[in-house]
Structures are given as structure tokens and as C-alpha cells.
Amino acid sequence: MKILQIVEQAFRTLVEEQDDTILWLTQSMAGAGANVEVLLSGNAVYYAVMKNRQPVIKIGDWVQQEPADIPSDIDRMLAQNIPVYVLNSELEERGLNASMLRPSIKSINQVQLVDIYHQVDQVWQW
Amino acid sequence: MENKKLTFAFMDPPFENERTITFFRLVDAALDAGADIQVFAYEGAAALAFALQKAHGNSVHHRDTEQEAHPLTKDWVAALQKKAERLGRQLDWVNCGLCVDERGVNESIPGCKRGSPADLWRYADSSFNTLVIGTR
Questions:
Q1: In sequence order, what are the residues at sequence separation of 6 or more whose Cβ sits closer than 8 angstroms to the Cβ of residue B42?
Q2: Residue B1 has pLDDT above 80, yes or no
Q3: What's the mean pLDDT in A55-84?
Q4: pTM of the full predicted structure?
Q5: Contacts of A112 (CB under 8 A, 6+ apart)
Q6: Is the pLDDT of residue A100 over 70?
Q7: What are the extents of the domains in chain B?
């Protein structure tokens, strides 16, 4: 069975969980044998162009030691052969384009997205 | 034989928003419809079955603890377990283990297990469909 994970809620939990919790879930499921693909949607398309890990947060005297590292999470998913897609239209409406994407992330159009929907068994919208 | 197993992945905590009661009503309705249910409680939802939840009175309502009869999600989980048993259906509930650790909500009511995303994959793979309800 193949699952398409649609990650739409961007930057949720990045400080507290030190990652995007659905990207983490996806890597963990893939490690357990799940056949998963990822569509970064909405503001989560920013994940596809990020180059740096999150800045360190300070709250009072407390200083975060290991902030989230989305580029590394994306690279780990790609190394697990998890396809990662973004919609061209969602990049463009944010002033981004496919040339800015991290290597191996696939930019697709709406018609190609329909094909992906047909190829998977379940679509999970997070 | 028809697969009547349905998986829910739910992320919201108790006492925060309308999705939580909607999730419970969906599970209740799915049991009525004859489905076996598998729940993966992720992130804040890992606290839904926390055994130390405590009802309180409410001075604004002019009611003491007994009169207020404050709802607790652990009681809803228990009620669904009881309903599933009465109907001869299966209700499996797994809390994300790391999620309960970081929240200190390890003590779940009986029948709720500790697990991992591998359980969500196993649940989904054995179900006819999966509904994920993320936080917003």
C-alpha cells in the first residue's frame, strides 16, 4: 500500500519537537517499511527551498541546543527514496520557483498531481 | 470477507478545540456502523487517555465537582472501549510513545498501549481506509 502524505501546516512544532512532526512521522514509518510519498503544500513549500537550520531560540536563560534542521530532514527522506513533490503554482504564488528547490525535489503541475493521486492508495492530509 | 477496519490518526489534545469532540463522535458513529477501530494518538492526542485527568467544580456555574460532572476525554475513551465490547467490535488504541514521554502523560487508562509510527503503518495497512486529523 502506498500513502501520499500532504504536509500543509508549515513550521508547526519546529521549536518544541526540533523537526516538522509529519516529516518525522514519515521517516519513521518508512523505516518500518511503509511506502510513502510527500507533497509539500501551502506554506510548507518553503521547506523545499530552505538552506539553513532554524535559528536558536532563547527564552530567559534557556537556550535551545539543537534547533530543527528541515534541510537535513528533507535530505534524509530523499536518501530513504521517499519522493518529495511541490506544486509549481504554490511556489510561484510565494515568489519562488523550481530553480530554488533542493536537489531531487520534484516540482509538478496540477495534472501531474492528479496522476500521483491515482497512483497511491491513500492520501493523508495533515 | 469485507474489511470493516478503520484507522484514525489524531493529533489534537483534550480541552483545546472542536476537532477533539468531532473525532470522538466520528469513532462513536463508526462503531455504530459496524467498523472495527484502530486509533493512533499522536502529539497532543497522546493525552486523551491520560489516567490522571481530574474533574473539577465550577464556581462560575455555581456547581461543585459532582454537580458540574465535568467531561474528561479519558472517560470518552473508556466509553468507546465499553461500547465496542458491547457491540462485539474491536477498538485498539496506541499512543505515540515519545509524545507521552515529552508530555509526562504515560499513565493511560487500561486498554491503551504505547507504540510508535510503525503501529500507524501497521494499522493503516490492515484497514480499508484511514482518516488523519491534524492540528491546525
A1: A21, A25, B9, B10, B11, B96, B99, B120
A2: no
A3: 94
A4: 0.90
A5: none
A6: yes
A7: 5-133
Q: Which CATH class is domain B5-133?
A: alpha beta
Q: What is the mean pLDDT of residues A66-90?
A: 97
Provide CATH code, domain A2-125: 3.40.1260.10
Return the half-sphere exposure (C-beta side, CA atoms, 13 A cut-off) of residue B6.
19
Is A87 at the interface with chain B, CB within 8 A?
Answer: no
Cell, residue B53? 485527568
Average model confidence (pLDDT) for chain B? Answer: 96
B23: exposed, middle or buried (Cβ count in 10 Å: 0-12, 13-18, 19+): buried
Binding-site residues on chain B for chain A (CB distance < 8 A): 9, 11, 42-43, 102, 116-118, 120-122, 124-125, 129-130, 132, 134-136
Distance from C-alpha of A10 to C-alpha of A57, rounded to nearest angstrom: 18
What does the block give as the cell for B17?
A: 478545540
